[in-house]
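Priority: medium. Attachment 1 of 2:
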């Protein structure tokens, strides 16, 4: 690779490290002029998503005892919002894998997409929410995946998806993308911390892992579902942050 002008792309085809790399100007092409605009809009969308996460986290606390219970029922607004976020995350990861120009980036996104799909399937009770409710309780309609004819293959399928993701991360070396992002100083620590807090709060409201919160059943359910929504949005924001380090390049 000859030494010429500085390539402003986050990645180039000749380099898998996150850094400014030296390539001849003629290899970058006119399409590279669009990169600052694309980066600008990506930054704006990421900041907007961060503000949404913080706003939702802040308003959840006072609304836990004020929101109507039906808001967090199965097939309710919060549950459906969770499913939309998870499905969108899977689609973004899949498209990123299809457009990736390095083996490591492609492997990373191929590892991420199945994990989003697992969360998506879990939120839909593996499809049971599309059936007639088995019962109606003060906590909302009751669905059970045991009513699904394909229930016996759900757990094996999840195991295969997890194995596929691990293969892409560690055998195909998709994990290198995270290492490169970490070295660049742009690792999504904020998003991961928010997601972790959201999952911990969700776990505590259910009384699992020796954790608990002083909430009655109704507010606890609201806190659980809203915390999960915040966590999923944080993961989506973290994934969005990684897109700038694995964007497809043009020759």
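Attachment 2 of 2:
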């Amino acid at each position: 690779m000859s030494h010429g002008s500085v390539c402003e792309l986050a990645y180039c085809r000749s380099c898998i490290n996150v850094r400014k790399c030296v390539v001849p100007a003629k290899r970058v092409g006119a399409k590279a002029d669009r990169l600052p605009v694309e980066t600008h809009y990506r930054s704006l969308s990421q900041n907007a998503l961060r503000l949404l996460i913080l706003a939702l986290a802040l308003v959840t606390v006072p609304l836990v005892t004020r929101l109507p219970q039906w808001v967090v029922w199965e097939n309710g607004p919060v549950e459906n919002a969770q499913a939309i976020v998870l499905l969108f995350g899977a689609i973004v990861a899949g498209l990123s894998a299809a457009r990736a120009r390095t083996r490591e980036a492609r492997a990373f996104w191929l590892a991420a997409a199945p994990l989003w799909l697992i969360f998506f399937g879990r939120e839909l009770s593996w499809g049971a929410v599309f059936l007639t409710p088995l019962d109606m309780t003060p906590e909302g309609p009751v669905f059970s995946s045991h009513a699904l004819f394909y229930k016996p293959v759900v757990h094996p399928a999840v195991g295969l998806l997890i194995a596929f993701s691990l293969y892409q991360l560690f055998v195909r070396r998709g994990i290198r993308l995270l290492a490169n992002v970490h070295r660049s100083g742009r690792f999504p620590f904020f998003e991961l911390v928010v997601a972790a807090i959201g999952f911990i709060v969700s776990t505590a409201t259910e009384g699992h892992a020796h954790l608990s919160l002083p909430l009655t059943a109704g507010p606890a359910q609201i806190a659980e579902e809203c915390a999960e929504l915040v966590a999923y949005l944080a993961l989506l924001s973290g994934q969005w942050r990684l897109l700038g380090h694995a964007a497809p390049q043009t020759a």
